[in-house]
Amino acid sequence: MLKLYGTIFILLFLAGCAQVVPLTGGPKDMYAPTIDSSKTKFLSETTNFNGNTIEIKFNEYIKLKNPSENIIITPQLKEKPTISVKNKTFRLKLNEQLEENTTYVINFNGAIQDITERNDSIFQYVFSTGNYIDSLSIKGRITDGFSNKPLEKILIAVYPKSDCMGVDFDSIPFIIKPTYLGQTNKQGQYIVNYLKPADYFVFAIEDKNKNLKLDVADEKIGFVPTEIHLHKNIDTINFRLFNVESDEVFITKTSFDYPGKLTVVFSKTPNQFNLWSEVELTTQNTQQNDSLIYWLPFEPNKTIQFYYQLNENPIDTISPIYHQPKQPSEKLKLSFNLKNGYLLPNENLLVSVNEPIKQIDTSKIHFFDLDSNFLSIEFHITDALSIEFLTDSTGVAYFMIDSLAFESYYGRFSTQKISKPCKNYKADEFYGSIHLTIDSLPEGNYVLHLLDKQNKVVQTKYIDDKQTTVLFNELSPGIYNLRMIKDDNNDKKWTSGSLVLRNQAEKVFYLKEQIKLRSKWTNTIVWKIES
To answer: For a tag site, which of 36, 38, 167, 504 has the least CB within 10 Å?
Structure first.
């Protein structure tokens, strides 16, 4: 298989002659360099090419822009070509013998710029070592398998079946570099042109490190589960990308931030994780199974090494770089779970701080009823950064917090005097509801999520295709959306795909319109599923 020496690829949305063509969805660049066909010996779509140098003359002085990233040749070459520019001439010297009866495409993705305005030329230069130009193509669209959002700059990797003999299907994107390449635009669309009739395996890879292979740690994948028999153009090869499931659990990210906050993120929920250092650490409840937050008891002034053990693995170390802002805050900040001075029905007042609490001076925290009578309110510390005051059903109307009421581990105090109303909404005067009718639901079981404005799950319902109506009650006024997962394996959650089993990720549907809900209202929604 012919292989490209470099690690780059570009959009293959441009067909035909070597001329300036704007990217789909973008404005046409009227001032980009154009090819001077009268002075260029071998024009695009030249056949029976047997030389080793390609020279393209332009109508103005040009320069190269990141040629190692912005120029790609397909099929891939074994040896890196020599590329240069002089005045108005682009020159590419081949350093190997080309295959017979093969169509080659040189893709330029803004690699050619004019000297003055730095406008990019985006085009393809096509030639064949045989007496005809291969003209078949595949195209389609790529979206994220869970969010359904279009994905830009995704690698389309095309492998002739003849180059994959003896290689397991699930190993192809890991060990073989593709012969033909494409890349998606902002709308998630792609096209791979100038293919010859043959059988191909086709994958879509989130190639973050641009090595033209799949890395299971953090790159998503999509695939056609069987080879395609290409004898005519195919316009609907679509992909829904997902992360390859791995039994291995590993740390994907660590950050060490002012004033002493260590965050550890995992690839998936570990069975066991222990972390320690030369100083005592405080753990913050993140309410997430795949991340942990630790706080040091002081601001670090040097590199601190942390030791950890993940599951049954040997003890290892991390030494993250400490990030301190140029103008760090000297005050402790307080926040409250109030909405316009009100708490939700049956909710207690929650006071949150931005740093772990060292001590609270309760003599500086005051609660009052409507007649300004002082009330004694109990409290408990929910975690390192939160205090819950048991205000529900106590008659509290407002509260006051004096300055210096809270002190953090780092010697910072809450310096602002705060006075806020604090009453609970009545349930029958606050909550609304959503009455959902589902139309055209394909056969199967489903997980239905009601999402808030931040796409956090508010309520979950488990339904099947026979249930056409769903009621969501006791909803706060606000903006909502709906997400439905086709639960093929009946595990009541979204399941990613499997490259080994050649299974696609479970399909996800989203309601296109947001739902606006007001207090004491019932919104009636009809959702027609477009499968």
So the answer is: 38
Domains 334-425 and 430-528 share a fold: yes
Task: Report the candidate in 71, 12, 61 with the shortest Cα–Cα distance to residue 33.
Answer: 61
Q: How far apart are CA 156 and CA 230, in angstroms?
A: 16
Q: What CATH homologous superfamily does 430-528 map to?
A: Carboxypeptidase-like, regulatory domain (2.60.40.1120)
Q: What pLDDT does residue 4 have?
A: 36
Q: What is the CATH number of domain 251-323?
A: 2.60.40
Integer Cα distance of 222 and 46 in angstroms: 35
Does the N-terminal peptide bond of residue 75 adopt cis geometry, omega within 30 degrees of 0?
Answer: yes
Rounded Cα gap, residues 366 and 391, in angstroms: 12
For the chain, give the number of residues: 531
Q: What is the CATH number of domain 334-425?
A: 2.60.40.3710
State which fold the 136-243 domain adopts.
Immunoglobulin-like (2.60.40)
- Reduced to 3 states (helix: H, G, I; strand: E, B; else coil), residue 401 is strand
**Residue 20 clears pLDDT 60, i.e. is over it:** no
Q: Quick one: pLDDT at residue 32?
A: 79
* C-alpha closest to that of 112 among 101, 104, 124, 99: 124
| SS3 label, residue 213 | coil
Contacts of 340 (CB under 8 A, 6+ apart): none
For the chain, which residues make up each domain, given as ranges? 136-243, 251-323, 334-425, 430-528
DSSP code for 58: B
* CA dist 48 → 100, 384, 508 (Å): 9, 74, 49
**Contact predicate 151/206, CB 8 Å:** yes
108/400: higher pLDDT: 400
Q: Which of 155, 123, 130, 158 is nearest to 15 (CA)?
A: 123
Query: What pLDDT is recorded for position 31?
Result: 64
Q: pTM score, two decimals?
A: 0.78
List, for residues 122-154, the tens digit of each pLDDT value: 788 999 999 999 999 999 999 999 999 999 989
Q: How far apart are CA 389 and CA 379, in angstroms?
A: 4
Query: Mean of the per-residue pLDDT values for the chain?
Result: 89
Q: How many other C-beta atoms are found inside a 10 Å radius of the C-beta of residue 9?
A: 27
pLDDT of residue 431: 95
How far is residue 207's CA from residue 365's CA, in Å, rounded to a whole number?
54
Beta bridge partners of 423: 342
Strand duo 103-114 + 62-64: pairing: antiparallel
Kind plus residue range of the DSSP H or E element containing 389: strand 386-389
| Number of Cβ within a 10 Å radius of residue 201 | 23
